[in-house]
Design brief:
Layout (H helix, E strand, L loop, with lengths): L18 E7 L2 E6 L3 E6 L7 E5 L8 E7 L2 E6 L4 E5 L5 E5 L19 E7 L2 E6 L4 E6 L4 H6 L4
Antiparallel strand pairs: 1-2, 2-3, 3-4, 5-6, 6-7, 7-8, 9-10, 10-11
Length: 154
């Protein structure tokens, strides 16, 4: 059985746009735009207004992939070689990666990537592709003090 679909343009992005990643959450599309940063589009609002959450150059260099989990936006930045998080008040913080090029396991501030690209969540586990190394990487997001203590050495 062949599937058939109707294709409809949702919005036209800026001429400088270079969208790579797309994610959906709570009636909004989140866009990882390589040139313009992390953006959102409210699908309930018919105005087609794109809101820039993290501009390129301000916490974001080359956004590649984006996903949303528990109200937080996560994205990969290929230039910074990091996985970053955008809080609900639009502060950007590092989830994983030193920024140095390499393949190194370790805690969030010790691990290294070459070219972090694809990103998705399954439960509380974040998976990421490193396109240049050919690795799939698992990142366990720690959100509680109990989780932090598990990794502390005394």
């Amino acid at each position: 059985m062949k599937l058939k679909a109707e294709v409809v343009k949702v919005v036209t992005l800026a001429p400088s746009a270079s969208p790579f990643g797309l994610s959906y959450s709570n009636n909004a599309l989140y866009i990882a735009d390589y040139n313009n940063g992390i953006q959102s589009l409210n699908l309930c609002d018919m105005s087609e207004t794109i809101t820039t959450l993290v501009p390129s150059g301000e916490g974001c260099s080359q956004a590649h992939s984006v996903c949303v989990f528990e109200g937080m936006i996560y994205f990969t930045d290929t230039a910074k070689r990091q996985v970053l998080q955008v809080s609900q008040d639009q502060n950007v913080s590092v989830v994983a990666g030193t920024g140095n090029s390499g393949i190194q396991d370790g805690l969030w501030n010790e691990c290294e990537f070459v070219q972090p690209t694809g990103l998705c969540f399954e439960g509380k586990t974040l998976y990421m592709c490193d396109a240049a190394s050919g690795h799939i990487i698992m990142i366990i997001v720690i959100t509680s003090l109990k989780g932090v203590l598990k990794y502390c050495t005394i």
